């Protein structure tokens, strides 16, 4: 069966002809289509083309393979215990692209993709100490030793078993 297509336009003007079933995984796109129809291209000025392609890969796969809700809080630091293999591989990407994917999922209002990308980030930091998290995300520690000591003292209950 052939389904109608809608054109989505990235921030650089790159056009993507997408099955309307995949495109409407986005609440934003679905609302625009409901308002103006599928004949006019849908501009997505906050999403770069490479990120939009990745988002559409997710949406196209999940048209026929519905995503399962990710349990919260996460009980594992491995996505393989939480999501299907395809989803796990999908978010096994460079950190910068992962964050852009998360922002795009939020902007496009694709909750399952937002949950998946957030779960990936959560597994990256689950069980890690502050210094390890800083290293993972290249965050500079801007506390003086005195400030850090005071904060540790105020929050020492966090380190209790």
From TrEMBL:
Residue span(s) of domain SKP1 component dimerisation: 111-158
One Pfam short name: Skp1_POZ
Listed SUPFAM superfamilies: POZ domain, Skp1 dimerisation domain-like
Record domain SKP1 component POZ: where: 4-63
InterPro entries listed in its UniProt record: SKP1, SKP1-like, SKP1-like_dim_sf, SKP1/BTB/POZ_sf, Skp1_comp_dimer, Skp1_comp_POZ
Family membership: Belongs to the SKP1 family.
Name this polypeptide is given: Skp1-like protein
């Amino acid at each position: 069966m052939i389904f109608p297509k809608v054109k989505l336009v990235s921030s650089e003007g790159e056009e993507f002809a997408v099955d309307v079933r995949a495109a409407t995984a986005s609440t934003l796109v679905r609302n625009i289509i409901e308002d103006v129809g599928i004949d006019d291209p849908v501009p997505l000025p906050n999403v770069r083309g490479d990120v939009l392609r990745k988002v559409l890969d997710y949406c196209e796969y999940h048209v026929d393979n519905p995503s399962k809700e990710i349990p919260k809080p996460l009980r594992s630091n491995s996505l393989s215990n939480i999501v299907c293999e395809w989803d796990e591989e999908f978010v096994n990407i460079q950190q910068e692209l992962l964050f852009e994917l998360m922002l795009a999922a939020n902007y496009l209002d694709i909750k399952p993709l937002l949950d998946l990308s957030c779960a990936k980030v959560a597994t990256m930091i689950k069980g890690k100490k502050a210094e390890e998290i800083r290293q993972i995300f290249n965050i500079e520690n801007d506390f003086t030793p005195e400030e850090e000591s005071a904060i540790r003292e105020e929050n020492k209950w966090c380190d209790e078993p």
